[in-house]
Amino acid sequence: MEDSEFRGWLSRYTDSEACLEAFQKQKTFFRVNTLKKSLEEFRSLTKLDCRQAGCCREAFGLEESIPLGRTWEYFLGYIHPQSLSSILVSLVLAPSPEDFVLDAAASPGSKFSHLAMLMENRGVLVGNDFKKQKISALYATINRLNVLNCIVTLRDAKALDWKERFDKVLLDAPCTALGSGSSASSRWEPSHSERISGAQKRMLFSAYDSLKPGGTLVYSTCTYAKEENEEVVANLLENVPGSSLREIPLEIPHEPGLGDYGQEFRKCLRIYPQHLHSEGFFIAKIRKGE
C-alpha cells in the first residue's frame, strides 16, 4: 500500500502527522523486575542512563542509545524491555496476590511476567499460548525473571473450555500490530484487520467464558483498526447479557475509544505514539455480571 493511503486511513482515528512523527521518535522503555531486585536496589546498582516514567514507578525510559538485551541488568533479570503503553495493560487488570489469573495469549511473556510481579509471585497465574515455539519463548522469560507462581498451558485461545475459573483474565490478542514497528505502512492491509477480527472475537468469547461472575477481563491490542478493537468488544457486549465496560482510572494522555459502537466505548483507551512516546495501544476493561 502507498504511504499516503495509510496516512489517510490513520487520520480517521487520530492526527496522522503527529502520530507518524512521534512514531519515528519512540523511546526505549524497560520495567524493573521487582521479583529479583527492589526499585531502590536497582537504582543503587545500575549504571544505565534512564528516567522514571510518571505513570508507573517501575517503568523507565532509556536516555542513551544502547541495546538493552546486551546489558548485565537484562542478563541477570533485573529489567525487562517493554513499551510504556504495554506496561499499562497489566496495571489496568491490577491483579492481587490472592487472585487466580489467566493470560490467554501469554507469549513472549512481557505482560505475563508483569502480572506475576504485581501478584508478588503469589496466587496462581496461568500462561497460555497456542504454538510450541511461543511456549519456548514464554519459558525463557519465566526463567530469566524468576516467575514462580505460574502454570503454562498449550491451548487454542479460541476454545479454552475453562468455565468460570478465573478472577481476572488478560487477552492481549494477536493483531495486525500497526501501532508497533516502523514498517506499519508497508504492512497495512485493511482486509487483514477484517480477517483477524473473527479470530479475536472467538478468543474474547472464550476468555470471557473462563471468567468468574464479577470478574474482570482486559482486552488489548497494539493496533488502531476499529475492526480489531471496538468492534470485537462490541460483539461480546451485544451477545452476552451482563457484560459491561468499566472506566479505566489511569491518568495518562490518551484518546477515548470510538463512539461508533456506543458512548460507553469512550471508557476505553486509545494510546497513540504522540501520547507516551511509545507504541500505539487499545485497552478495554470488561466486567462479568454476577
Topology:
Blueprint (H helix, E strand, L loop, with lengths): L2 H8 L5 H8 L5 E4 L6 H7 L4 E3 L6 E4 L9 H4 L3 E3 L2 H10 L6 E4 L6 H9 L5 E6 L2 H14 L4 E5 L11 E7 L11 H4 L2 H20 L1 E11 L8 H10 L4 E2 L9 E2 L12 E3 L1 H4 L4 E7 L3
Parallel strand pairs: 5-6, 5-8, 6-7, 8-9
Antiparallel strand pairs: 1-3, 1-4, 2-3, 9-13, 10-13, 11-12, 12-13
Helix pairs in contact: 5-6, 9-10
Brief description of this entry?
The protein has helices at residues 3-10, 16-23, 39-45, 72-75, 84-93, 110-118, 132-145, 184-187, 190-209, 230-239, 273-276; strands at 29-32, 50-52, 59-62, 79-81, 100-103, 124-129, 150-154, 166-172, 211-221, 244-245, 255-256, 269-271, 281-287. By secondary structure, it is an alpha/beta fold.
Description:
- α5 crosses α6 and α9 packs across α10 (230-239).
- With 290 residues, the chain is an alpha/beta fold.
- It has one domain (83-287): Vaccinia Virus protein VP39 (Rossmann fold, 3-Layer(aba) Sandwich), CATH 3.40.50.
- The chain is built from eleven helices and 13 strands.
- The mean pLDDT is 95.
- It has helices at residues 3-10, 16-23, 39-45, 72-75, 84-93, 110-118, 132-145, 184-187, 190-209, 230-239, 273-276, and strands spanning 29-32, 50-52, 59-62, 79-81, 100-103, 124-129, 150-154, 166-172, 211-221, 244-245, 255-256, 269-271, 281-287.
